[in-house]
Design goal:
The protein has 81 residues and is mostly helical. The protein contains three helices and no strands. The model has no long low-confidence stretch (mean pLDDT 81).
Length: 81
């Protein structure tokens, strides 16, 4: 669980991430975004070791955007991570 200070930092982090990613995603078609998501679903588990790494990655995740039932990083699902 994040503290109030941690929640504030998370909002700042997600806003900074959105400033970078949203202009990129706006230029992509829905088909390109679907392809990108399929690639990330396949690639992320290859670069994140199960255990401590998943805890670190999930701390930087946008939980509202993460598919809770099939997190691409945490095999048990985001709710478990």
């Amino acid at each position: 669980m994040l503290t109030p200070k941690g929640k504030a930092q998370m909002r700042t982090t997600l806003a900074a991430r959105a400033e970078i990613t949203e202009p990129i995603l706006r230029r992509m078609s829905s088909e390109e975004i679907t392809t990108l998501l399929a690639f990330l679903d396949k690639a992320l588990p290859c670069v994140v070791e199960e255990g401590h790494d998943t805890d670190v990655v999930c701390r930087l995740c946008d939980i509202d955007a993460c598919p809770q039932d099939r997190c691409p990083v945490c095999p048990q699902g985001a709710a478990a991570g």
